[in-house]
Amino acid sequence: MTIISHTRRFVFVHLHKCGGTSIERAYARHAKWGDLILGSTTRGEILQRFYSRYNGLYKHSTARSIRDTIGGSRWSAYRTVAVVRHPQMIMESFYKWADLMIKKEMRRKRISFDEVRRRFEQGSGRASFYRWGHVTRYLTSADFPEYVEGFLNDCIRIKTVDDIVDENGDFLVDDILKLESMPEIVELFRELTGAPDFAIGHANKGNDVGPLVWDPDHLERFRKFNEAAYSRFGYDP
Q: Which of these, 122, 125, 92, lies nearest to 214 by C-alpha position?
């Protein structure tokens, strides 16, 4: 989700699989007139369709896109916030989320996993998630190591750095918090909202697929390929 609060003068940039949905749903209870929240809630999803079409903003808009839409002067005047996460945990979360989406489709249509895969291969699956990259990779992989290998072979990296830097590679946001430090995130939003009871739950949680084991070679390649995310956010390799 993207939050643009004109009443409290801040912007929240939602990075993929970094707790943004949980934060947005928590903030929605404290939103005021003039707050724009895109995605994550029923109202947010409706607004996202409109703003995506007419303004180019959506749930996972980059900091540059938001800045260019609302204007550089307003962006500079507002407090800007993003939450990041350990790169490996992002990859694992995507895998669990893809598993969740597929299992939901199986229950909704009362079909087997093999049938989901068959519909995907034949292009007969109508649900939009069939076209999403992480779901596609999940359906074409036998297990988690093969899933990771596919992304490495295609040179697809975690985009947390890319999504919050400017044209020169400098960070655009004022506050970069780590999802692993949830008390700091809660404290910041209590400050922004003035609500001492501000609390964040756990939304958009993927399936519990058991422990995910990384192939040592994959892990080494993944760390090298995502070196910027490790070093710039201070995560241990």
A: 92
Residue written as tokens 């895109």? Answer: 38
Amino acid at 196: P
Using CA atoms of 113, 115, 117, 120 in order, give the dihedral in degrees to the nearest 10.
-140
Question: What tens digit of pLDDT does each residue of 119-129 get?
Answer: 887 776 566 66
The backbone torsions φ and ψ at residue 39, rounded to the nearest 5 degrees and listed phi first, read: 85, 175
In terms of Cβ atoms closer than 10 Å to its own Cβ (0-12, 13-18, 19+), residue 136 is middle
Q: What are phi and psi of 37, to 5 degrees?
A: -125, 120
Is the pTM here over 0.90, yes or no?
no
Distances (CA, A) of 195 to 29, 82, 121, 189, 198: 10, 20, 49, 8, 5
Q: Under a CB-based contact definition with an 8 Å cutoff, are residues 104 and 206 in contact?
A: no
